[in-house]
Write a structure and sequence with these properties.
This protein is an alpha+beta fold. The protein has 15 helices and 12 strands. It has a 6-stranded mixed beta barrel. A two-stranded antiparallel sheet has the order 11-12. Helix 2 packs antiparallel against helix 14 (about 370-395).
Length: about 400
């Protein structure tokens, strides 16, 4: 029965090629619109995620308990020595790419008559390069262990200070005893990130120079970078067992717990994509319902004849619903394929984007089509087509045989 209904529905659709093409086109272009809009949102979310991880956070961070809440006010209280954590055992874990230490400090930077406040990070140049791919040195040279007094400045901080690569500056910071410590350094390079506010106040120095300035040994953070972001939760469990948080007084924090802006971006694009999906579903349902109702009016005598020769009302309803589902399947498949190839074409060209809030540089966006997005577009087409066919199918099944046959005369 199902096979015969399906075959009859296919023949009916083939007999009304123009109407069928219009319905399939409406479904297909709706799916294309969803895939392109959703793919753009997916790429923006993915780009923001990877940018967040590779600018400062890494995938996992090892710090002392309470560092995020009180570390800025009392940085010396949250230092821990290299002997507390065995970095070699961490590196040996599956999917771990690198581990790098950081030492946070703040103070004043002076050049000539200009003195400004800064937020500094002492880093290990070689291992930090893997984590900080989004910290782009656009003038001069990046940090190097071979240059222990060479530092890099954020773009905004360098502009305010009037500093350029090769110039000498003085860094001042407060020691644990309350005294002032000072070191002389040379500007090795100038960097920028996706966050303008960070560039306006930040600088980075080799970690030995930071320890010399603070007159303290140890580290505030160990940043763990993985091969794949999707392995974060899996590695988090293993790392917590290795670190033994209760015994060492340390905590392991995943990047997502520190990325408030990323969470806001995900929520924003999820809302926008959901709204687009709803609008597309409404358009498909309205256009298909109108086309199917027109088809029923034109096929009234045909429906009456079918009932007269023994078709039950349920079978008539199933026939029209089957027609709707077939158009949904064809339109969904064509729309998914067309949307995928258009996404590849557009991504190859790039979508010029202006600087986002908090940024001072634009970028070229792309469209990222995931399996989940393609499947959701296809299912949207099928479900919307099925819903669109319900009322017309019910209307067709409610026709009276005598009245339907009379219209044929």
């Amino acid at each position: 029965m199902i096979t015969s209904t399906f075959a009859l529905a296919c023949r009916n659709l083939a007999r009304h090629t123009r109407r069928t093409a219009v319905c399939i086109g409406a479904i297909g272009f709706g799916v294309v619109a969803l895939i392109l809009a959703g793919g753009f949102a997916e790429w923006m979310i993915w780009m923001e995620r990877e940018s967040t991880i590779h600018s400062r956070l890494g995938h996992l961070q090892i710090v002392k308990h309470g560092y995020y809440e009180h570390g800025v006010a009392d940085p010396h209280a949250y230092l821990f020595g290299d002997q507390v954590v065995d970095t070699q055992r961490i590196i040996a874990l599956p999917h771990v790419k690198t581990v790098t230490p950081r030492l946070a400090f703040s103070g004043l930077i002076s050049r000539g008559d200009t003195t400004l406040g800064f937020l500094g990070e002492g880093v290990a140049p070689e291992t930090e390069a893997e984590v900080s791919k989004e910290v782009i040195v656009h003038a001069g040279q990046p940090l190097a262990s071979s240059d222990p007094t060479g530092i890099i400045l954020g773009k905004g901080l360098a502009a305010s200070l009037g500093a350029e690569p090769g110039m000498t500056v003085v860094l001042l910071s407060t020691m644990q005893s309350g005294g002032i410590s000072a070191v002389e350094a040379q500007v090795r390079g100038i960097f920028h990130t996706a966050v303008k506010a960070f560039d306006d106040a930040a600088l980075r120095v080799p970690i030995p120079l930071a320890r010399k300035l603070m007159k303290a040994d140890g580290t505030h953070q160990l940043i763990v970078l993985l091969n794949e972001t999707e392995r974060t939760d899996e590695t988090l469990k293993k790392l917590r067992a290795l670190v033994n948080e209760n015994k060492t007084g340390l905590q392991v924090t995943p990047w997502i717990d520190l990325a408030d802006f990323y969470k806001a971006v995900v929520e924003l694009f999820a809302s926008q994509t959901g709204f687009v999906r709803m609008i597309i579903a409404i358009i498909i349902i309205m256009s298909m319902s109108n086309a199917l109702m027109t088809s029923i009016r034109e096929r009234t005598s045909e429906i009456g004849t079918m009932m007269a020769i023994g078709f039950r009302r349920r079978e008539v309803m199933q026939l029209f619903m089957c027609e709707g589902v077939i158009m949904g399947l064809i339109g969904g498949a064509l729309g998914t394929l067309l949307g995928y190839f258009l996404a590849l074409l557009i991504s190859a060209q790039g979508i010029p984007m202006p600087p986002a809030p908090g940024m001072d540089q634009g970028f070229d966006a792309q469209i990222r089509v995931t399996g989940a997005l393609a499947l959701s577009g296809f299912l949207l087409a099928v479900v919307s087509a099925l819903l669109a066919s319900l009322y017309p199918a019910w209307k067709a099944s409610r026709l009276q045989i005598v009245d339907a046959l009379r219209r044929a005369l």
